[in-house]
Amino acid sequence: MLTPISSNPSVNKEALAQIPLNFLDFAKRPQIMEWIIGIRRKIHEKPELGYEEFETSKLIRAELDQMGIPYKYPVAVTGVVGYIGTGKPPFVALRADMDALPIQELVEWEHKSKVPGKMHACGHDAHVAMLLGAARILKEHQNDLQGTVVLVFQPAEEGGGGAKKMIDAGAIENVDAIFGLHLSVRFPSGVVASNPGPVLAASGFFEAVIHGKGGHAALPQHTIDPILAASNVIVSLQHLISRETDPLDSQVITIAKFQGGGAFNVIPDSVTIGGTFRAFSKESFAQLRQRIGEVITKQASVQRCNATIIFDEKSCYPATVNNKELHEHFRKVAGEMLGLENVIQVQPMMGAEDFAFFSEAIAGHFFFLGMTDETQGKFPSGHSPYYRVNEDVLPYGAALHAALATRYLLDHPPTYTSNPEVHYHDEL
Predict the structure, then answer these.
(1) What is the model's pTM?
(2) Which pLDDT score, from 0 to 100, does residue 414 have?
(3) 122 labelled ligand-binding
(4) Is 305 marked as a binding-site residue?
């Protein structure tokens, strides 16, 4: 797929190491910046939900074709995997998610979503634009790459487990490490944030139907009240955190759904509750899931009710854990580009990301790119119908992507057991 570039042992490593420092200046050129922003706006106008990103994928492929970057398509329904470099090891990947959310956009601007009920309310349109920007930078410096950069454009991050399907389809085969980023309103523009180890929690979702016996509210003795049973269940679930969980092992259970009854004077036959649970370790997550099932069924039984529970396996994500070596690499590269004062370490957050599947399979690193700027007004958090992106930070994401990959390849030369000129094999 790619034209191999033979490695020259006389190449000055220090000179190559200076190349990524110029990436931000390249990305900030008016022509490049306008192109990146233009891509983001095109995607924003036509949001597509998980595994429906056909037009988004088509746009990505058109841009890769224009740059002369080979790719595989389709991968996991709508995914695209591009390749830049020698076609030989080492392989390092950069990931962007493509899907939108089922939200009606309430931001009035020229490039507002043209699809009713759908919106890029989590910045994935910008993530794609920044990765394409990185692709342009890397293509410009292809002859300096000491290996191969794999561009992973992933579908269905928002609850569809697209990362896992990309892995199952071979998207990161032969890849040694992967980097991913997410825009964040928690940090100022020009600031990046991350930490070694767990950075985002494992998450799961469940729904339970508690069955009783309905009847008139004035005669509760003739009923089996599922609302009372559900209320006891919710209180008991909170005891799992306050009484059974190590205070130093962060966990969360939240009941966010409670449906039952439709009249003031009628006790219903059943009540439906649902929620999410989060933890940072596999053991804690498994234990929490087990106890949730036990508490719901047994507490319902105390109130003479029956309960059926469904755990949503498709939306179950592991914890996102940053490789410690890659975190040091990230701090070094980002510090050289932005200044160490703009590279901050944050406490792990209970949010979840399906990048976790990548970091579970290979060494991975996930970080946040700040975009808050008080001069541009308030930036609502993700999944809000008023969510908007500070487009001034897009060159930073593109340059960081490109620099992280370039320096990784430079710092991790392949180990040959024989003469690579004689025994060359195209990994792609």
Answers:
(1) 0.90
(2) 80
(3) yes
(4) no
